[in-house]
Amino acid sequence: MTYSIVDIRRTEISKIWLKNSIINGLNQSTKSIPTIVLYDELGLQYFEKITYLKEYYLTDAEIDILKNKADRISDYIPEGSFVIELGSGYVFKYFSYTLV
Asked: Where do the Histidine-specific methyltransferase SAM-dependent domain residues begin and end (predicted)?
């Protein structure tokens, strides 16, 4: 089977949408930006910094779950397996807590 990957970020329409989405997101009481701006190298650096803000509670919540439930979680993972966590936050969680 053959798959195609289409990068929608490279069109004029997507540039207009992105600009409007950023402006609208930053004008809300709860600030947000489209995740697409986080995908280049600079964006990833910004995202890492964002994950340490108190307003970005997801990273702390996930670290708390990993710290407090590691034994129970590991009961469901076959011996010799690897765990890849693709949730919110940065890889800090992976390096710090998968070896518990």
From this structure: 19-93
pTM of the model: 0.42
The Cα 75–Cα 51 span in angstroms is: 29
CA–CA–CA angle 9, 40, 2 (5° rounding): 55
38-68 burial, b at 16+ Cβ within 10 Å, e below that, comes to eeeeeeeeebeeebeeeeeeebeebeeebee
Cβ neighbours, 10 Å, residue 89:
20
Helix then strand count (H, E) for the chain reads: 4, 0
Single-letter residue type at 58: L
The 10s digit of each residue's pLDDT in 70-94 is: 788 888 878 777 666 655 555 555 4
Q: What residues does each domain of the chain span?
A: 8-39, 57-97
Residue 85 confidence (pLDDT): 62
Scanning the structure block, which residue is given the tokens 């919110």?
88
